[in-house]
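Obj.: predict assembly geometry.
Materials: sequence records (below).
Method: joint structure prediction, all chains together.
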Amino acid sequence: MSICCNMATTQIIVIFSLFILISHAQDCIPRYFGDGKMVCVCNSTYCDFVEVNVPDKGKFRTYKSSRSGERFKTEVSNFDTGIQNENGIVLELNLGKTYQSIFGFGGAFTDAAGININKLSKETQEMILQTYYGSNGSRYNLGRVPIGGTDFSTRTYTLDDTPGDTDLSSFSLANEDINYKIPYMKRALELNPEIKFFAASWTAPPWMKTNNNYTGFLGFLKQQCYQTYSNYLVKFLETYKNNGLPIHAISTGNEPADVFAPWVPINDMGWTPSSLSNFVAQYLGPTVANSLSNETLIWVLDDQRVFLPWFIVDMFADSSEVDKYIGGIAVHWYADNIVPPSVFDETHKLYPDIPIIMTEACSGSEVWELQKVKLGSWSRGENYMFSIIEDMNHWVTGWVDWNLALDKKGGPNWSKNFVDSPIIVNPETDEFFKNPMYYALAHFSKFIPRKSTRVDLTTNDNIKSVAFSTPENRTVVILLNQNEQSKNIVIVDPNQGHINTEVSGRSFQTIIYQQ
Ligand SMILES: *[C@@H]1O[C@H](CO)[C@@H](O)[C@H](O)[C@H]1NC(C)=O
Ligand SMILES: *[C@@H]1O[C@H](CO)[C@@H](O)[C@H](O)[C@H]1NC(C)=O
Ligand SMILES: *[C@@H]1O[C@H](CO)[C@@H](O)[C@H](O)[C@H]1NC(C)=O
Ligand SMILES: *[C@@H]1O[C@H](CO)[C@@H](O)[C@H](O)[C@H]1NC(C)=O
Ligand SMILES: *[C@@H]1O[C@H](CO)[C@@H](O)[C@H](O)[C@H]1NC(C)=O
Ligand SMILES: CC(=O)N[C@H]1CO[C@H](CO)[C@@H](O)[C@@H]1O
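Observations (raw structure tokens):
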């Protein structure tokens, strides 16, 4: 009897809690940091999730996020037969004119990210992975993984630090791989089986280098170690594959130009176009092709766009063999202010079959930015949005963030190179904070699955815009208003009619509909 009563009570409580979950589970729990700065707070039992819900043909749905506090606020409207507001900015869509196929969006499984996630309870860890990779989260489908340590590690190391170990008998995964990368990558892959992982090494083991160091000015791979280092990289691919994590692509190394900047105190190893061409054509390319990881692509550059297109042109000039092995060109965003995106157009024109992928971006990295983590900064979200729109309008096929999560100082990292992240963890309260940068990326990643195609949309100086067509035949338009004033936008789809929408000041908007 008492058992029955208890069961009934339990059932009522379960039903009641389910009702609370269903009725409120979507909303952001805001926390304010003054001057329009706001984060959404998540913990072990709660996070803001949004399901993508596309209305029947003839209607469209908008999702809005703004500096004033909206996060994926959604609404369904009808197409109109004309322009409703005479002052509207008219953008014309042409689904018949197509550009690049989209590869995806994601972030990096750095040691720092794993160390931070690991400081939270198991339930809160799961919330972070859900909010990035789950179907009601950002639905990221890319993940970058460092081979060995980076500046966002708590020590300098590689996967074979035994001097002179040319047969790599001491090669082994580090504690960081086992505790801070592999478990989270595996869970992400369970949440989204579409994920493609790609790997990059920051440096070869010091004993293979001219300066016998992880960091430092003018540290190059010794010529006599080209084959040993290729074997080292392939050992990493095979070890991760054996752990259930196949690696889609391997880059030829993170930021090879850092070694020419003596003030950059991070793990690095230099390449010139000519030495890299030789390494890829004669060593890494054939070694990967003859290995059990022969499906893994090789991405070159992995550095700022200031090197485009000449670095690639020089690589091709140096070796005709290199052509066989280049599966992608990886670029970072840190010099975007000094180099126009037209370098992507030039690169694409020269090598139309080689995809360009943006593989690293973060806010707070400039030396003059004294506040590394700026909780709730809308302008940092806008910078992400601006970059993604600009890149995608110039042939870039993917956009991948740096650390998935950092602490409130912007670390940990051994080299004190602190920066910001879309997610900041607060282990003291077992919470994490989602910055506007998180929403900027999610305004793309949730709506644009792999193999979507960018389609033509006319441009206007007062609003940033980009459009896509997805494999499910949905049209997705993304708008960024950086003005303080709201803008009336009219999107003309010749097949379906006019979308009249208001894009409020300082806001992001994603529009989605069935074709
Ligand atoms: C998590 O956050 C929700 C929403 O703010 C709150 O209701 C709940 O009590 C929090 N859970 C914990 C364990 O603090
Ligand atoms: C996504 O959200 C919808 C609506 O809230 C819910 O029905 C569905 O179960 C959620 N999916 C996952 C995987 O949580
Ligand atoms: C490596 O370089 C750093 C500075 O770049 C220096 O402090 C350190 O002593 C060097 N280590 C070795 C083993 O040379
Ligand atoms: C990779 O190797 C396997 C056999 O080991 C072979 O069947 C396959 O065709 C190779 N793939 C490529 C892309 O070369
Ligand atoms: C999308 O449209 C094309 C062309 O009309 C059609 O062939 C294809 O089957 C459609 N795809 C889906 C998933 O409906
Ligand atoms: C703020 C922070 O996380 N700092 C860490 C940087 O890395 C060193 C180890 O190299 C740690 O001791 C610091 O705590």
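Conclusions so far: The pocket of 2-acetamido-2-deoxy-beta-D-glucopyranose (ligand 1) is lined by residues 29, 43-46 (CB under 6 Å).
To do: check interface contacts against the pulldown list.
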